[in-house]
Amino acid sequence: MARRRMLQAFQAAKEIGNYADVPVMPVDVDPQITLSRNTEKQPFFLAFAEDTVIALMSGSATVRLRESNVNSWSMIAGDHVYVPAGTPHALEPNEESVLIRYIGNEPAYRAAVFACETCSGELHRLEWKQDLEVEATAIYAEVARRFNTDSAARACGTCGTTAAEISLERLGWPSEVAA
């Protein structure tokens, strides 16, 4: 994947979309910085093997946390949120928001945690080892496709609610696996 030069982050962000998490630093820089421009609510919580820091560069958003003593954190441009390793978190933009995320540069564990909108219980968890050379949206789209096609994963064992399918089109993620 071609890395973006981040001389002008806002200009670079115009070319990317929801949760693109595009690496912007040279390959050997650790921690790495990723960039995304988000307009839609993140459809699942992400958990990283390593600590991460989210910095909001424009807009406003809320970071939702699971398995934490803090449930949410409201952010405006210039705010940073530290997320401890293993803590599932999701971004909910209040408006178009540009963010950068500091993460480890080496391939590492990631997880998508799906939660029930009614009772907040965990519905399903998918885990993988992510290399920053693979486009994040391709991985996230595949995770969403698997969730969408697994009716058992979308059914809440606690309250009986069935989660709606994730709209890949709304998020601007690829609807099919690249050939």
Automatic annotation (TrEMBL):
<dbReference type="InterPro" id="IPR014710">
    <property type="entry name" value="RmlC-like_jellyroll"/>
</dbReference>
<protein>
    <recommendedName>
        <fullName>3-hydroxyanthranilate 3,4-dioxygenase</fullName>
    </recommendedName>
</protein>
<dbReference type="InterPro" id="IPR011051">
    <property type="entry name" value="RmlC_Cupin_sf"/>
</dbReference>
